[in-house]
Predict the structure of Envelope fusion protein.
Amino acid sequence: MFLQRVNESFTNIKTDMEALMATNYFSSSAITATLLINNLRRMQETFFDTLTDIRQGHIDMHLLTPANLIKQLSEISGHLPRTLFLPVDDVKEDIKDIYKLLYVRGRITQSYFLFEVHIPLVCDEDFTFYRPIPLPITINNQTSKWVHVSSDFIAVNLRKNTYLTLSQEENKRCTLRSKDNYLCSAKVPIFNLHNNKAPCEAKLLDQRTTLPCETASAQCRDSWIKLHSSNTWLIICCDKCTIRIICDSDVTTHMITTSSFITIAQGCLLQAEELTIYSHNQYNSKMNMDSDIHIPAINDSINKVVDLSVQKMPDLYKSDNSALYKEIDERLTTQSQQENQEIAMSSHDIHQYFISYFILVAVSTAGVVWVARKRCRGTGLREPRRNTQLPEDIEMQVIQPTTSATEAKNTAVSAVNVAFSLD
């Protein structure tokens, strides 16, 4: 009866385990499907980001990894002529700046997505960039003289006595490499400063002439020109200009009668009759981050550090045989405890057994020694004393002469009595 109930219990357990395995399989399939969908979504987002970046002329780091880009740049730099260089000094240190300088074009075919990456190269000529701003010379209250300027920007290389001119649109195509450092495409001719047809601003930079430049008459107008430095302005004032600078609760009034440079402090603003200029504020904060991670000292096996055993199986399915399972569990526990009590032996028991065996061996050894000594003593008392004295009587007999051949045969010697015969 008991075995039948145990078999039924095992059958029910097997059924429950099969149901649990089916549930786990369904859960793992759902998790796998979720991961696949998330992966596809990330691929779709990457694809759209790639199209957007290529539309703007850039490429994502996941498509062209830094390791591949560094490898390609190293190969390119080995085949460049002496007059051309990469736009960075150190490829590994300035790799993030190279991504900003890359220009990418793409094309989609039926089987491939093609990328065309353009890497700008720089020559060994450095030009100093200038923006000539003519200042008016007032003749009367209404008219003034202006210096004629040939271009919006001019770049000069005084070492090689060369220059080139750029317009406002060409200047916008230049790429800011670092602070006060631009990369511009040299699609314009490079002129010589010693040319007689060089513009007035180029000759003034070369300081080869003191002749006046060409001027033109025009009506003077007040204007504000933003300069390269942050919060710095050039004000062209024809007559008198009144400005106010407000910083928090402080208000300062200034009267300007000529062209001047004005720098607005951070957090301030400038007010004129026709405009208001706010300063460009840059607020920086410093934050130090540290991860509070306690690393355990692993001096034992991983099973002692992380408990990988299942402490408790979740009760996903409730069966009607719970009382039977409990009874079987109690019986097995009782039997296991009884076996442990029978087999268990303490250190005190071991000491007692050792002392008992030692005393028994000592007593046995003492008994054997006593019996052996007693037997040896009894044997010595019963042994008679042997008489080794020879008899005092000597009988002499006549010895007949014999030949040498028969002498040894007829001679007899007794160990007890010796008799000699004399005639």
The radius of gyration is 60 Å.
